[in-house]
Design a protein that fits this description.
Order of helices and strands: EHHEHEEEHEEHEEHEEHEH
Radius of gyration: 20 Å
Strand content: 15-25%
Largest sheet: 6 strands, mixed
Shape: globular
Number of helices: 8
Strand order of the largest sheet: 5-4-3-2-1-12
Distance between the termini: 18 Å
Number of strands: 12
Length: 279
């Protein structure tokens, strides 16, 4: 969907931005060869390509390696912006807010994960139940540095970028409600439901759409020249002009498990004899 555009066309698009989970990557978290080919083709036309995701820079850099070093990226919901595989902008969480969030997390029996400005995740093993998910996470991400601490104060040996918890959905939903109520407007609290659910505490301005518009401005690209693919309905409702939306996929096109194709019969672009919208 173009951001704030009434008359989008291929000639007016200079930046294509894509969310990762649920949009660009398949259920295994991989970029298919076909998807990579599409992105590389767009780049060859002089169009900038950006990842827009809640994933941290360690995970994002693996996608950049898989796709191409020319990729731009917005990481941790807008906390970090990467250009040429280098962090150029950062929006760190207020340390007092981070401490307040951590106090709630520990008191309620969860394991806090503090992603620092130095890109190291420090964690306090405050709950054996919570540590089960953390151990699985560390096994799945051997490329990402983790550091166990013995006291909550050690979580903030460097400035915090984000405080998070990975948990079961039921426990994550409970913690999300507590943190959102406790922190209010002092932080942007996000619930990411899934097989492993996340509760994330970010800087109050660490929003994907704000970071994307900031990146576009830096590149000298007007908001009307940005095409954004994502699965974030709040952004659609609150920040996208209704007149600029031509079509909404109820099943993300890059990640679809369906056997149908809304616009074309297959990837060749051969039109259907009839068109059916199906959730």
């Amino acid at each position: 969907m173009p951001l704030h555009s009434h008359d989008p066309s291929p000639e007016t698009i200079r930046l294509v931005a894509c969310d990762v989970d649920g949009t660009l990557a398949n259920p295994a978290g991989e970029i298919s060869p076909y998807t990579r080919q599409v992105l590389c083709t767009l780049h060859s036309y002089g169009i900038e390509i950006a990842l827009v995701t809640g994933l941290n820079p360690w995970v994002v850099r693996r996608y950049i390696t898989a796709i191409g070093p020319w990729m731009l990226a917005i990481s941790l919901n807008g906390t970090f912006i990467l250009r040429d595989d280098t962090i150029t902008d950062r929006l760190l969480l207020d340390i007092d807010v981070a401490r307040q969030a951590t106090e709630v997390i520990v008191r309620e029996g969860y394991v806090p994960l503090v992603f620092g400005e130095d890109l190291i995740t420090r964690y306090l093993p405050a709950s054996e139940e919570g540590m089960q998910e953390v151990r699985r996470l560390m096994e799945e991400r051997p490329y990402q540095p983790y550091q166990q601490v013995d006291q909550a104060t050690e979580l903030f040996s460097v400035l915090p970028a984000q405080v998070s918890v990975c948990e079961t959905l039921e426990r994550a939903e409970r913690l999300y409600s507590l943190l959102a109520h406790t922190l209010g407007a002092k932080a942007y609290v996000v619930l990411q439901p899934g097989t492993r659910s996340w509760v994330e505490v970010n800087h109050p301005r660490a929003h994907k759409h704000e970071a994307l518009l900031h990146l576009a401005h830096y590149l000298g690209i007007d908001a009307r020249e940005v095409l954004y693919f994502g699965d974030n309905l709040p952004i659609l409702r609150e920040h996208i002009e209704d007149e600029s939306v031509d079509l909404i996929y109820l099943d993300p096109p890059f990640n679809s498990q369906a056997t149908y194709n809304v616009l074309f019969a297959d990837q060749s672009g051969q039109p259907r004899t009839h068109r059916i919208l199906k959730p």
